[in-house]
């Protein structure tokens, strides 16, 4: 039975209709209270903080991240008196004057009436579904009126727009709410590891938890610290405002990912005595609220899906949007696996560069450091399928920083030429198809090896990994696994590679790889382990050459 046929049999075990979403309470959202002395110290540190972008963070990233700036909110003296201006009408509704940031948001949304109407409807749905309620004006603590904005996901059919709070917004005189929240450790599994596991099994499926973060309840006293303002009738120019408080953890707080994961882990631990194997798999295959499952054949696939449904039904959570490697999709459009397009018909990963090319075309000749970073951030490349282009974009950005170019100054002609060539080359990625399943199977495979190749230059370094699988009948199959690149940091002084005309003086420097370290390195695939020394014997006669 091939991958397509297996997917068809699994489909009948996937839920055809989503269950009604109910609530689940969990950990307390805590925010740290500070003394006046500590607050004054924070204010001084904030004023000393540089306003320019910290380039060291950029070079530590292995792929571009979204780095949108956050506008500052009103000064503290305005916010401290803002609560006094909130009044209650005869019908009990709270009203308040508009803040400058909210006025700006409304002005922007009114340019697209359909967007304003959809955003207002979403906020009203939060009230109807009991995620928010009107704030308590008699609360004697220190409330926080959070800024918020709509986030549009045009690639998903389940939610086209959702409100997201701006927990990072701060005034120039003090910290943001995110600055004083206990963020907690990252409890999610490694993103690359989740994607690699997804490629191991012949049968695969994806799903996600409906309103996952919004299913974690706040303690009532913490809800007063997570308020927001919205208009009663957005169509009217002088509409009164309503002050709401969150009853559930919203999107946009630094603590939200931790609260979600620690809640899921607690629930999964409670289900472990009943579904131990499935619980162990779920902990490895759930990333935030996305579930990437898989199995080698039909029987365990049925078991995993049935038990997963039972586990989340116990927590009154709705696991929805199920898609499997079946010719008949369960939703319109091409599904995404943690941001990567998955064509379930050809069972391949693909990339659609249309939106990026369109954004680059709109720029025309306005190629600046700001615009290059903004467009480059749209390229999501966790496995490394697109490193030939993403690395080039990083090098272009690196050159702009070396030239100390301002954010909005046009790049030099040679950089603009390279940028245009890189954007033009993105068209070729529309033809790129990477098999999701690497063909690994304990029943038919005799050996499984991982071959890793690395190289470095003054500009960057990188590595690429391939899987070499040999069947019991002697056939060998090679699949691309992953690749990673890093751009060199801006040096205080320029070094040269060994073998060039100029060499650094003093100390010992080597551009090669320590063979003992490489031989001790273990590469894992599935449940087995392959020593790098074995790969060296196969690949390069036991010698490590650079």
Radius of gyration: 27 Å
E-strand count: 22
Strand order of the largest sheet: 4-10-9-5-6
Question: Number of domains in the coordinates?
Answer: 3
The poorly predicted ranges are: 3-37, 39-83, 92-98, 328-332, 495-546
Number of helical runs?
18
Q: Kindly estimate the percentage of residues that lie in beta strands according to DSSP.
A: 15-25%
SSE blueprint and pairings:
Layout: H1 3-11, E1 24-25, H2 36-48, H3 55-60, H4 76-82, E2 87-88, E3 94-95, H5 100-110, H6 113-128, E4 132-134, E5 145-152, E6 161-166, H7 177-180, H8 191-198, E7 203-209, E8 216-217, H9 220-223, E9 227-231, E10 241-246, H10 256-271, H11 276-285, E11 286-287, E12 290-295, H12 298-314, E13 319-324, E14 336-337, E15 340-343, E16 348-350, H13 354-363, H14 369-376, H15 387-402, H16 413-425, E17 433-435, E18 445-456, E19 460-471, E20 476-487, H17 515-520, E21 522-525, E22 528-531, H18 532-540
Parallel strand pairs: 1-8, 5-9
Antiparallel strand pairs: 2-3, 4-10, 5-6, 7-12, 7-13, 9-10, 11-12, 14-15, 15-16, 16-17, 18-19, 19-20, 21-22
Account of the 3D structure:
With 546 residues, this protein is of the alpha+beta class. The chain has three domains: 24-189 and 210-255, no CATH class; 354-433; 438-540, no CATH class. Helices cover 34% and strands 21% of the residues. The protein has a five-stranded mixed β-sheet with strand order 4-10-9-5-6. β19 and β20 (476-487) form a beta hairpin. α14 (369-376) packs antiparallel against α15 and α15 (387-402) packs antiparallel against α16 (413-425). 26% of the residues are buried.
